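Q: Could you fold this chain for me?
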Amino acid sequence: MDDKMMLMIPGPTPVPEQVLLAMAKHPMGHRSGEFSQIVAEATENLKWLHQTQNDVLILTASGTGAMEAGIINFLSAGDRVLVGDNGKFGNRWAQVARAYGLAVQAITAEWGKPLDPEAFRTALEADTQKQIKAVIVTHSETSTGVLNDLKTINRHVKAHGEALIIVDAVTSLGACSVPVDEWGLDVVGSGSQKGYMIPPGLSFLSVSPKAWAAYETATLPKYYLDLGPYRKNAAKQTTPFTPPVNLFFALQAALTMMKAEGLEAIFARHDRHKRATRAAVKAMNLPLLGPDDVASPAITAVLPQQVEAEKIRSVMKKQFDIALAGGQEHLKGKIFRIGHLGFVCDRNILAATSSLEATLMQLGYDQFNPGAGVAAASAVLNS
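A: Sure. Below is the predicted structure, expressed as structure tokens.
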């Protein structure tokens, strides 16, 4: 049956009907007063979501574009940076930094395990000459479903005094609390197709006064991703280049929905869905890639042993119209990932759980009692 696909992946995520309808409006002039009002409202609500009074800039780019902008606007060739690398995206930021001639020191951990804040503390305390200019950290590592301890890592960065902290919050912003001002985060990047509940195409960067001071002396080349013009234009409630107007309509509608739900309710919903999903997977006797205490609220990575991950994904898609994500790099074919991010409700969790049970039985996996997964998920959802 057409149009029944349910996205249970870490992005793009499901889009609410009222957001889709907002996108269906006829475009308006992006230099009009009416569009400026939309920019102003969206910007104010973005500050609410980021829990900040800092600038929050809107770019026409993916989350990768936001992170590249976050790196190149505040650093110069040869600058020394620490990059947390415990998955696909931490590794990507190290590659971006090297591409621009930065001196990268990677703080690594095995995929499926969190970064060790003590490794950051040791490196930062050893830098008595204050040569480290930035620390780049992925908060929620989408490739493995691990949530890194950003709060503690940031505390060590603040003790250093000189370094900026640049955060990939692409799958954590809108799924768990990222209190930009309370923690003093300098640069925080995110993308529209995740917790924001709208299609891909927009990304967001919050920028602190300390980061803007670094911008004044940064010399890496930039043009389209030069944040200076974005800041000047945002002050006038406009954009430096032609924006995807209808995605701004979507952003306005989605942020209105999020404000109506409230921050604490959004975070509690994601936490509940994370716990329900993990309880269901355990009840089906499927191993999880990472431990519970560092589990991301956005994605759960499963490491099946007696049944192939790709066969599970195939049956889920073909028979039940549910899309699950696969593994990346060396985990390709070894894991599957269940997304529970953005516009996801209890019904989605139970539908995915019951379909996964049926899939496992179809594939001959009999290491669980049928119904155990649904029962475990329901117990969490009803608690």
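A (continued): The first strand starts at residue 6 and ends at 8.
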